[in-house]
Amino acid sequence: MPRKRKKAAEAKARADAKKRQDERDAEEKKKLDEKAARQAADDKKVAEQTAEFLAKAASAQKQITALEAELDRLRKEEDKASRDNFDASKKIELARVARRNAELEIQRTTEMVARRAEQSSLTRPPPPPPAPAKK
Known about the structure:
This protein is mainly α. 87% of the residues lie in helices and 0% in strands.
């Protein structure tokens, strides 16, 4: 009988050991599954955040491109306005010089006409007629 008991005890011990091993395996599998689920969730979160930030970066790049184009356009406008202002100032200064030259030419002509008039016999009154002789 002891042999049967021994066999029964060994069988029970094997069954208990198998049961404990199965429980450990199940617990380990559960932990691995939970870890894999957490990792998958973290990977998904990272992928979503990456996509979100890539979209934001693309949007920011479009905005940068648009703003750079606007800045370039405004700089060109400023250069054109500056050139136009310079050209207008140049024309004004040339007009002032032409006016001064014209005024000087008028003064010179007036002085020349006045000088000729002074020297002309037509502008001098004729000498008074001789007084009649007294008889």
